[in-house]
Amino acid sequence: MTVMSSTATAVHFHDQQPPAASLTLRDELLQGLRATPKRSSPKFFYDLRGSELFDRICVQPEYYPTRMEEAILRDAADDIAHVVGKDATLIELGSGASRKVRLLLEAVRPTSYLGIDISRDFLLDSTRRLAADYPWLDVHAACADFSQRMTMPSGLACDHPVAFFPGSSIGNFAPEEAECFLRGLHSLLPSGSGLLIGVDLIKDEAILNAAYNDAAGVTAAFNLNLLERLRHEFEGDLDPATFSHQAFYNEARSRIEMHLVSDIDQTIRVSGEVFHFDQGETLHTENSYKYSVDGFRALAARAGFESRALWTDPDKLFSIHYLERA
Ligand code: AVJ
Fold first, then answer.
1. Where is the Histidine-specific methyltransferase SAM-dependent domain (predicted)?
2. CB of 167 closer than 6 angstroms to any ligand 1 atom
3. Disulfide check for 153: which of 14, 204, 254, 309 has CB 3.0–4.6 Å away?
4. How far is the CA of 257 from the centre of ligand 1 (A)?
């Protein structure tokens, strides 16, 4: 299916996802709520409102990852173009607003771009704008859950695929899951393909804690929006005002943990099922793992990706790796 935007620029759209609130998503959600401790996959954050709130997180002064990664991409664009090479197909995993890739397009000049995201409306909107702004670029959009098994959409020229996975989204996976995810990419991509990946670095705890507890409360709103989504999309019967945002660095596991804490002892209902929260009990909503440069290289190597280049900012807050599929 090809969807025309108002500026009549074509985006080739590939719907690879069952409709929102499908049985599998609902089952996954309920499974997490039944577990001890209660948990929810971070992908549930990203409804339209959640994606908008995430975009606002990215411009909060305490949230350094986006600013640092963009600065690195801007500074290193020509170097990146050099290692990526000519006639690439850039495949962005979790493309969101497709803003970061803009920093690379003029330098890298790929033949085509494929944005993959779970938030359908957000994806369509941002890839349409990209197609309008870069008329020379063949733009594709696939609505899919890239944490599940994926297939390459048909009609996309793919002589030199380069996956682009910015934002340290890899940090949402536990290290063993990250390795498994990279193995999946390894089997999807031919030998010689590239992987340009942003990875947040281990650093002073105070900087990490501040980044996930911004003074304007945007990260809190993002976390709490999950409860609104439960209400509207999954027949949730609960009062979001009875939960609080919690985020802290777990040093032993090199990860930020986000939780929704129940302020009271209560029973809620989701999709007709009853869940009890003790006062202070949490729903664990996200992990964001941090790596050292060598730690991430070792993980990638175990999945069959060899380190080709690395860029960081002067304070070593954030890193961008270029890896080649062996
Ligand atoms: C998109 C997973 C990289 O872990 O920093 C930001 C998500 N959560 N603030 C991160 C997030 C709270 C973000 N990632």
1. 26-324
2. yes
3. 14
4. 10
